[in-house]
C-alpha cells in the first residue's frame, strides 16, 4: 500500500537555497524513498512567478513521489495542513542595518508564519528555521504558535555540524563516517562552539588526537566563520550545502540518529547545561521516536564552558531585543 503523502512547505522557494532544496525533497531524500510529497511553496508576491518557474521544472522532472505543487504568497494557504515546514525565506542584512533592525524585519516575516502554522498546520508539524538569524527566527515563530508543542520548532546548525565533521576528517585523514559525537553548541553565528571534547574517532577521543592550538586557533574559527568565508568566495551565501544540511536535519529528525552517535540541532532549551529555558540553542541531540532530545550528563570543562556561555549570551541578547520589540 502506498503511504499517504506528506505535505512539505518551503518558504523562500525562489531563492538560492530553495533551488538547491526542492528537487531533493521531490526526489524523496527528505524523509524516505517511498513517501509521496505534496509541496507548498511560499514566496513574496514579486517572486511568485520565479517560484512558478521552479515548479514547472519540478513538474518536468516527473518525480514519481511528487504528488502536487502549490505556489502562493499567502502564508495561511502555504501552511495549511503542513507536516514539515522549512522556513528558508528571510530578510538579509543590508548595508547600514543594525542587528535590531534585522531582528525587527525578520519578526515581520516569522511572526505571521508562526500564526499561520498555529492556525492550520497538521497536528504533527515539525518546523525548521534556516533563514537567519535562524535561532531567533525559530523562537519568534514558536512564540506565535502557542498551540503547537514548543519542541517542534528547531533552528538549523546541521550545516555547522557537517562543516566541523569535514574539517576534523581532513585534519586526521579519516572519513567523516569515522567520527562520532561531535557537537555544535549555541547560536548559528560566529559565536557558535564546535565541541571536540566528546567526539570520538576510531573509538578514541578526538580532542586527544589534535593539538590544542589547532583546535582553538584553527578548527573553531574555521567552522564558526565558514559562512562568511563562503560569502567572500562565492559572492553569495552557502546554498547547496545549506540545502543539504536542511535535508539531513529533517531526515534525522524523522528517521533517528545511529546508535552510539548524536548530531547537532537548535532546539528549545529545557535549562540543560545552564542554557536558559526557552532559548532555541544548538545542543548535541539524539533523535528517537520522531523527537529530538538533548544529550544529557556530559562533562563540560572550563574551555568549553566559556565558549558555550558566550554564544548563549548572544542568544539571550537576541531574545531580549525581540522581546522589547514585542515579538516574543
Ligand atoms: P535568497 O535571497 O536567495 O532567497 C531568499 C528568498 O526568500 C527570496 O526568494 C525571497 O523572495 C524570499 N522571501 C523573503 N521574504 C519572504 C517571506 N516573507 N515569505 C516567503 N519568502 C520570502 O537567500 P538564500 O541564499 O536562499 O538564503 C535564505 C536564508 O538562509 C538567508 O537568511 C541565509 O542567511 C540563510 N542561511 C542559513 C544557513 C544556516 O546554516 N542556518 C545557511 C545558509 C544560509
Ligand atoms: C552560513 O552559515 O553559510 C550562512 O548562515 C551565512 C549567512 O550569513 O547567510
Distance between the termini: 44 Å
- Please state the structural category: alpha/beta
Proportion in β-strands: 15-25%
How many individual helices? 10
Largest sheet: 6 strands, parallel
Rg, Å, rounded: 19 Å
Low-confidence stretches: none
Question: What global shape is seen?
Answer: globular
Bound small molecules, deduplicated? nicotinamide-adenine-dinucleotide, (2S)-2-hydroxybutanedioic acid
Helix content: 40-55%
Number of strands: 14
Which whole number gives the mean pLDDT? 97
Record the strand order, biggest sheet.
3-2-1-4-5-6
CATH fold-level assignment of the largest domain: L-2-Hydroxyisocaproate Dehydrogenase, Chain A, domain 2
CATH superfamily of the largest domain: Lactate dehydrogenase/glycoside hydrolase, family 4, C-terminal
Number of domains: 2
InterPro entries: L-lactate/malate_DH (IPR001557), Lactate/malate_DH_C (IPR022383), Lactate/malate_DH_N (IPR001236), Lactate_DH/Glyco_Ohase_4_C (IPR015955), Malate_DH_AS (IPR001252), Malate_DH_type2 (IPR010945), NAD(P)-bd_dom_sf (IPR036291)
Domain Lactate/malate dehydrogenase N-terminal: 7-147
Binding site for substrate: 93, 99, 132, 163
Catalytic activity: (S)-malate + NAD(+) = oxaloacetate + NADH + H(+)
Description:
The protein has 328 residues and is of the alpha/beta class. It has helices spanning 16-26, 48-60, 75-79, 99-120, 134-143, 158-172, 212-224, 226-234, 240-255, 302-324; strands spanning 6-11, 37-42, 66-72, 84-87, 126-129, 153-155, 179-180, 183-185, 193-195, 200-201, 204-205, 263-268, 280-288, 291-294. Strands 3-2-1-4-5-6 form a six-stranded parallel sheet. Strands 7-10-11 form a three-stranded antiparallel sheet, with helices on one face. Helix 1 packs across helix 9 (240-255). The longest helix has 23 residues, at 302-324. One of its GO terms (molecular function) is L-malate dehydrogenase (NAD+) activity.
Amino acid at each position: 500500500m502506498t503511504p499517504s503523502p506528506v505535505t512539505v512547505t518551503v518558504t523562500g522557494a525562489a531563492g538560492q537555497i530553495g533551488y538547491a532544496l526542492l528537487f531533493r525533497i521531490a526526489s524523496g531524500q527528505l524523509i524516505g524513498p517511498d513517501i509521496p510529497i505534496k509541496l507548498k511553496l511560499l514566496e513574496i508576491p514579486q517572486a511568485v512567478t520565479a517560484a512558478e518557474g521552479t515548479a514547472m521544472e519540478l513538474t518536468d522532472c516527473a518525480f514519481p513521489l511528487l504528488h502536487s505543487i502549490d505556489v502562493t504568497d499567502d502564508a495561511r494557504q502555504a501552511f495549511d495542513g503542513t507536516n514539515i515546514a522549512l522556513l528558508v525565506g528571510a530578510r538579509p542584512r543590508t548595508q547600514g542595518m543594525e542587528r535590531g533592525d534585522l531582528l525587527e524585519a525578520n519578526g515581520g516575516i516569522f511572526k505571521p508564519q508562526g500564526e499561520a502554522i498555529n492556525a492550520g498546520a497538521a497536528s504533527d508539524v515539525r518546523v525548521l528555521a534556516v533563514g537567519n538569524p535562524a535561532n531567533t527566527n525559530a523562537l519568534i515563530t514558536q512564540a506565535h504558535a502557542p498551540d503547537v508543542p514548543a519542541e517542534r520548532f528547531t533552528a538549523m546548525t546541521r550545516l555547522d555540524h557537517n562543516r566541523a565533521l569535514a574539517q576534523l576528517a581532513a585534519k586526521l585523514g579519516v572519513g567523516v563516517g569515522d567520527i562520532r559525537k561531535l557537537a555544535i553548541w549555541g547560536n548559528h553565528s560566529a559565536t557558535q562552539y564546535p565541541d571536540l571534547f566528546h567526539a570520538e574517532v576510531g573509538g578514541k577521543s578526538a580532542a586527544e588526537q589534535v593539538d590544542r592550538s589547532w583546535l582553538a586557533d584553527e578548527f573553531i574559527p574555521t567552522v564558526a566563520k565558514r559562512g562568511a568565508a563562503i560569502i567572500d568566495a562565492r559572492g553569495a551565501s552557502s546554498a547547496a550545502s545549506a540545502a543539504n544540511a536542511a535535508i539531513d536535519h529533517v531526515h534525522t529528525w524523522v528517521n533517528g540518529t545511529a546508535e552510539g552517535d548524536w548530531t547537532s540541532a537548535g532546539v528549545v532549551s529545557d535549562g540543560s547545561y545552564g542554557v536558559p529555558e526557552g532559548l532555541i540553542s544548538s545542543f548535541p541531540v539524539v533523535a528517537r521516536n520522531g523527537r529530538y532530545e538533548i544529550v544529557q550528563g556530559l562533562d563540560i570543562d572550563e574551555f568549553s564552558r566559556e565558549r558555550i556561555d558566550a554564544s548563549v549570551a548572544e542568544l539571550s541578547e537576541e531574545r531580549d531585543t525581540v522581546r522589547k520589540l514585542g515579538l516574543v
